[in-house]
Design brief:
It is a single chain. With 329 residues, this protein is mainly beta. The chain is 12% helix and 37% strand. It has three domains: 76 residues, no CATH class; 132 residues, no CATH class; 98 residues, Immunoglobulin-like. It contains five helices and 22 strands. The termini are far apart. About 2% of the residues have low confidence.
């Protein structure tokens, strides 16, 4: 009997190997620490008591860098800081005729203007497997997003290198913008058909394409065209954006007359319009602390990633809500 109890206790205390996607941190499998699963994904070993808690609800966790312990380990999505570490070997970015929407890093060369643009897919921040603020994404020290433009199929003959930090993609209004680079020095000596583009892979999906002429758009400034039109045509007092599953930004768009309006407003986040029983979280916003066109971040007590609309007391206040992972943000 003692031997049986000992065996049971050893089994219950044995460490667990947790496998994860090296780009998103999403948990993809698990097994006892002294076993192997026939998949190529990396793994971390955690104690059984921690593993049991994680494996009960893997959708709430990702494997990421923990700054406090300086280790890679499973962490709650709402608390994670994702450390981006480039691969050591060169990765050739695929050239395509037209870039599709699910590409993480999209590169376009405009041959008539000798311009290269670089865009970051907002889904990197808002995808369900990695719901992060841009401020929670960090490159490993000494690392960045590097592009190497070389002779076609020959990375040993480099024409130009581009080094990009994630913060370069943020506009003054903290939206994702498109970066633009002059490559006329390259195209003076070779054609766009005579180059390849390499990187040290950080994200999962890359692609590059060739177009004729560059046309500046609102995206260069990091502003959604449809949202910009709406904000200009509607007299909104506040714009509230679900930036992450438990973080909102609040921005004062037009002055509020505090003789007519209360100085504090209660905001409820609803999963269903006009259904207060569907409330997922709520906040009290000190309106007097807001400054025009300067957004502030507020952490919610509960997750709001499924909230579709808002409810508030003073209907004289005109509030625009942008849900989590909306095309607007």
């Amino acid at each position: 009997m003692n031997k049986l109890l000992k065996a049971v206790n050893e089994a219950l205390s044995a460490s667990i190997k947790i496998y994860y996607n090296k780009f998103s941190g999403e948990i993809v499998g698990s097994c006892p620490h002294d076993h192997e699963i026939d998949i190529d994904d990396p793994s971390v070993i955690v104690i059984r008591t921690v593993a049991d808690k994680i494996l009960e609800n893997t959708s709430q966790y990702v494997v990421a860098f923990d700054k406090d312990t300086n280790t890679i380990q499973p962490t709650k999505k709402s608390e994670v800081i994702k450390l981006l570490k480039p691969e050591s070997k060169l990765f050739e970015i695929k050239k395509v005729n037209d870039i599709i929407e699910n590409v993480d890093i999209a590169i376009t060369i405009y041959k008539d203007d000798s311009i290269l643009t670089l865009s970051l897919n907002p889904a990197i921040i808002n995808r369900t497997s990695m719901p992060l603020l841009m401020s929670q994404l960090q490159f490993e020290e000494g690392s960045a997003l590097n592009l190497f433009i070389t002779k076609k199929n020959n990375p040993n003959v480099m024409f130009k290198s581009i080094c990009v930090d994630l913060n370069d993609f943020l506009s003054e209004s903290k939206n994702i913008k498109i970066l633009k680079y002059d490559i006329s020095d390259i195209l003076q000596n070779t054609s766009v058909d005579g180059i390849s583009i390499y990187t040290r892979q950080v994200f999962e999906h890359y692609a590059w394409q060739i177009k004729d002429r560059f046309i500046p758009t609102h995206k260069i400034k990091g502003i959604s065209r449809s949202l910009l039109d709406e904000l200009e045509s509607e007299n909104y007092h506040l714009v509230i954006v679900a930036e992450a599953p438990n973080v909102i930004s609040v921005q004062l768009m037009n002055d509020i007359d505090y003789e007519k309006y209360p100085k504090t407003e209660f905001i409820a986040f609803l999963k269903e319009a006009k259904n207060l029983y569907s409330m997922s979280s709520s906040v009290n916003i000190e309106l007097t602390k807001l400054k025009k066109n300067i957004p502030i971040n507020i952490k919610t007590n509960s997750l709001i990633d499924e909230a579709k609309t808002l409810s508030w007391r003073n209907k004289n206040l005109n509030i625009k809500f942008i849900p989590y992972a909306s095309p607007y943000n």
